[in-house]
Specification:
Layout (H helix, E strand, L loop, with lengths): L1 E12 L2 E7 L9 E2 L2 E3 L6 H13 L3 E14 L2 E12 L10 E7 L1 H4 L6 H16 L6
Parallel strand pairs: 1-6
Antiparallel strand pairs: 1-2, 1-4, 2-3, 2-7, 5-6
Length: 138
């Protein structure tokens, strides 16, 4: 079984969270996710997240506090997904190099999107976290 480490961002700005829709003909096509990607050899998870967001969305971010790890096993791969809070360093239009679309959504809106399984597993905990720690949404 193959093991992959992935870093993903809960990127918050002005009360909204960034989500991205996976491309057609990809794994979990057209489902929504917290953006991020695979860790490369020699980089930290925080460096991975910043690099992936720049490559995929053209957005420079500041990676903040660790939120949690999620382990998901699929047919022949196990993914360790490490979630971090982050914020954009500039207001920039989003590039869509790896996604169909990307959106800034409110917490209430977030629950209406069909998320990839790994992200779905943390949604309730994330919503509870935001109810008691609203500074992350600033």
């Amino acid at each position: 079984m193959k093991n992959i480490e992935v870093a993903a961002g809960i990127i918050c700005n002005h009360g909204k969270i960034l989500i991205a829709q996976r491309r057609k003909k990809s794994n979990f096509e057209l489902l929504w996710e917290f953006p991020g990607g695979k860790r490369e050899r020699g980089e930290s998870l925080q460096e991975c997240l910043a690099r992936e967001i720049m490559e995929e969305l053209g957005l420079q971010i500041e990676v903040g506090k660790f939120f949690q790890d999620v382990i998901c096993t699929y047919e022949n791969v196990t993914i360790k997904l490490s979630m971090f809070f982050a914020k954009p360093l500039a207001e920039m239009p989003l590039l869509l190099n790896a996604h169909e679309q990307a959106k800034w959504v409110s917490l209430d809106e977030l629950t209406t999107y069909d998320l990839v399984p790994a992200d779905k597993t943390i949604l309730d905990e994330l919503l509870m976290h935001f109810q008691s720690n609203t500074q992350y949404l600033a």
